[in-house]
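Work Package 4 report. The design task specified in the project plan requires that, given a folded chain encoded as structure tokens, an amino acid be chosen for each position. We show below one input record used in the internal validation round.
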């Protein structure tokens, strides 16, 4: 028998038993003639005690050697309350070196100072760290909870194709060349969107899948080129009924995985209000500093650029004015400039007076009005911005988020769940003078807005929604278009010609002709959800073998060039870089 128990299992009730353990050496300590070894496996640690005189191989043993130990469980003289097995130890009778190890490139423990690329290069060692194993176990627990909940509601788990057709869904596709049809390509799915809708056409009614998805886009801290969705679709339900199912799933998941009870139903906030009040469509509402509209004061301020601005807004940050130096304010400008506002207007309310260079444009009566309307208190910092609406709201929203995090206003272990609803169906790009989908092109327009599709698409709102958790978008969903005429019209607004529609979506549009039921659904981002429930801010922590920010795997070195023979089989020639 390789082992009788794992390394997190033994307790005082096992004292006197002869056991066999196996595990990696986490730490070895020589104390005179006694040697203490902390043996580690996925379940925890067990301390092994051995007399140096009894074992010839003790001096050979180093960290990360794999040992098999047989011995007697005994009570510790001095318990270790930090370990589940801290009240016992195993007095070794036999120690066998199962395998040796080179010196690892970093310390294998929860706290390590290794650079992330080093950890990713030696990911198989990084995964031995208990913290990393807990992340992956949390991910598995989420999947178990999801399956249990949805199975009980008559949902059917169905796999959809990984090799499919390239369709415009918002990001670049990863293309896969066909050897059989040279010059033709499959695409890896950005989501199972069209196929899950076809499952509804096929009468499945309730589908789910823990689905692998792929998007060739610039990476951010919480994105990966290949990621996983908890994908859900239903027929014959309205938006409120879908919300009820999804809220129940989240409630069950939180209780199963983190032992946390959350209240339902979740708050709802229209998209336009989220932008106007928080400067973001994924706000964290666990703290204040809401954006305040100052447009009504413009007539009293003699600044030409301000009078031409589409928006004039402010946030008030309480109790920090005295501590804000010029350097601090420059740092805030660095944040806001990324969103289009190069320089914020900073005012301080000190000793009952508004201070700041911009106050030279204020009359005394306006100052009093601002103090009253903004409910200013001593030592408040006021940050103002004017300009294009989107730039003003997103800049102040980003600064608001910065203060929420840096001022410690967010209570650890709390969860803020919020539906963002009633998104605009389209975004109009002034530069290209074209429309793009705010969610995706299969989102159903609100019935009352259908009349605007021909006259002014910017007035059309959709039956679409996001679920925001602690300032992260964790789910996106919508009711879907089930009328082929409406779907064609949406494609044309997005700039697709009749030929484009038939070539890229003809097979899908064709399916809508055959009694398509009203349907809708959503998809959770499993990676991001696991990240939040695990209490880490690094999405790569919760993925077994992730890519870095360059979309490269430091361990395998993927992507890499392939042999010319492989390219010849595919009929592909690689264009050499000009570098």
């Amino acid at each position: 028998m390789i082992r009788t128990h794992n390394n997190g299992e033994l307790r005082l009730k096992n004292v006197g038993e002869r056991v066999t353990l196996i595990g990696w050496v986490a730490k070895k300590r020589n104390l005179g003639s006694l040697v203490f070894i902390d043996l580690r496996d996925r379940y925890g640690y067990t301390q092994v005690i051995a007399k140096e005189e009894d074992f010839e191989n003790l001096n050979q043993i180093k960290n990360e050697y794999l040992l098999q130990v047989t011995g007697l469980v005994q009570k510790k003289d001095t318990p270790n309350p930090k370990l589940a097995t801290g009240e016992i130890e195993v007095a070794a009778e036999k120690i066998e070196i199962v395998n040796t190890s080179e010196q690892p490139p970093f310390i294998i423990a929860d706290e390590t100072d290794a650079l992330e690329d080093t950890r990713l290069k030696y990911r198989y060692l990084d995964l031995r760290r208990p913290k990393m194993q807990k992340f992956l176990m949390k991910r598995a627990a989420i999947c178990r909870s999801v399956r249990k909940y949805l199975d009980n509601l008559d949902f059917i788990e169905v796999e959809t194709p990984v090799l499919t057709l390239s369709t415009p869904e918002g990001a670049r596709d990863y293309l896969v060349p066909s050897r059989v049809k040279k010059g033709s390509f499959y695409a890896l799915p950005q989501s199972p969107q069209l196929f899950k809708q076809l499952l509804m056409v096929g009468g499945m009614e309730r589908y789910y899948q823990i689905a692998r998805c792929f998007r060739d886009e610039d990476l951010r801290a919480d994105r990966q080129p290949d990621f996983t969705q908890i994908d859900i679709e239903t027929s014959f339900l309205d938006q409120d009924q879908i919300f009820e199912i999804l809220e129940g799933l989240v409630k069950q998941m939180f209780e199963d995985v983190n032992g946390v009870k959350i209240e339902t139903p979740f708050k709802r906030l229209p998209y336009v209000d989220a932008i106007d009040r928080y400067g973001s469509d994924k706000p964290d509402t666990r703290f204040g500093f809401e954006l305040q509209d100052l447009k009504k004061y413009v007539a009293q301020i003699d600044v030409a650029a301000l009078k031409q601005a589409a928006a004039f807004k402010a946030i008030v940050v309480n109790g920090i004015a005295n501590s804000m130096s010029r350097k601090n304010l420059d740092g805030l400008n660095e944040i806001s400039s990324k969103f289009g506002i190069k320089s914020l207007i900073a005012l301080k309310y000190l000793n009952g007076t508004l201070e700041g260079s911009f106050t030279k444009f204020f009359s005394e009566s306006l100052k009093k009005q601002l103090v009253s309307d903004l409910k200013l208190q001593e030592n408040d910092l006021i940050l103002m911005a004017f300009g294009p609406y989107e730039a003003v709201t997103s800049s102040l929203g980003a600064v608001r988020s910065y203060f929420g995090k840096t001022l410690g206003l967010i209570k650890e272990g709390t969860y803020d769940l919020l539906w963002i609803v009633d998104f605009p169906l389209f975004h109009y790009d002034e530069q290209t003078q074209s429309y793009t989908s705010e969610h995706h092109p299969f989102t159903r327009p609100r019935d009352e807005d259908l009349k605007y599709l021909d006259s002014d698409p910017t007035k059309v709102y959709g039956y679409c929604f996001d679920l925001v958790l602690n300032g992260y978008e964790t789910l996106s969903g919508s009711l879907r278009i089930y009328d082929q005429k409406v779907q064609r019209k949406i494609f044309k607004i997005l700039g697709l010609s009749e030929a484009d529609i038939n070539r890229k979506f003809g097979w899908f549009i064709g399916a809508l002709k055959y009694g398509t039921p009203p349907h809708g659904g959503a998809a959770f981002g499993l990676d991001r959800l696991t990240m939040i429930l695990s209490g880490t801010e690094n999405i790569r922590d919760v993925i077994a073998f992730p890519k870095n920010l360059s979309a490269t795997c430091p361990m395998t070195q993927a992507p890499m060039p392939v042999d010319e023979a492989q390219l010849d089989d595919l009929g592909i020639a690689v264009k050499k870089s000009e570098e």
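The radius of gyration is 30 Å. Validation will be extended to a larger panel in the next phase.
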